[in-house]
Design a protein that fits this description.
With 67 residues, the chain is α+β, with helices and mostly antiparallel strands. It is built from one helix and five strands. It has one domain: Beta-grasp domain (Ubiquitin-like (UB roll), Roll). Belongs to the URM1 family.
Length: 67
């Protein structure tokens, strides 16, 4: 994978078995999912265009909860 766009596509095709709409919306993550790359908000790094590097740590955190 070269960038975050490709990573999200790979995750959608290979890991999400049920209800992918809870994770992706269009070609990006849904609102309410915080994406951290090496502990930094991906918005600061270019979001989908961020070029992945060896040893990058990518974390997805849902800020949504049920009531």
């Amino acid at each position: 994978m070269r960038d975050m766009r490709q990573l999200l596509l790979w995750i959608q095709r290979n890991m999400l078995k049920e209800r992918p709409e809870l994770f992706v919306q269009g070609d990006t993550v849904r609102p309410g999912i915080l994406v951290l790359i090496n502990d930094a908000d991906w918005e600061l790094l270019g979001e989908l265009e961020y070029e992945l590097q060896d040893q990058d740590n990518v974390v997805f955190i849902s800020t949504l909860h049920g009531g």
